[in-house]
Structure prediction request, 162 residues.
Amino acid sequence: MNLLVEENMIELVKKTGKSTIYRITNYEKFNQQDNQEQDQEYQDVEEFDNQQDNQQITDRPPTDNQQTTNNEEGIRKIKKVKNKYGNFKNVLLTEDELFKLENEYGVGDTKTAIEYLSAYIEEKGYKSKSHNLAIRRWVFEASMNKKNKPKEQLPERKLAVL
Prediction:
């Protein structure tokens, strides 16, 4: 990177503890592609060192379950789209999160947990930043307790003959 900066091919825009942002200078001069519109679209590059954030900046278009957004500085970020699940369509999970839950807990238990959380959100107005984390932390346990809890039997009623 230092060599590219010294050669005036890129310039440092912003540096933080977790990321460094560079801008390509004289992009047209260094790019050999014919399509000038595409050349203008991908000028900004950003590198992330944050290992917790699995989202990456790329020059490829987003896949079906991703959404491209631009922040104030015009830097492209890709967000994974969350799909709606459950009876009330209020449990938000990415396809990747659903796949991991099904692999770890099984398809049946995952479906039961999603339905439990969906009903809970609808009934109580529960709000969470991450439904994936809520399912992992307490929904599986709560849905299994409800499933395994013996139903209370009502005492037999005797009818009096008059």
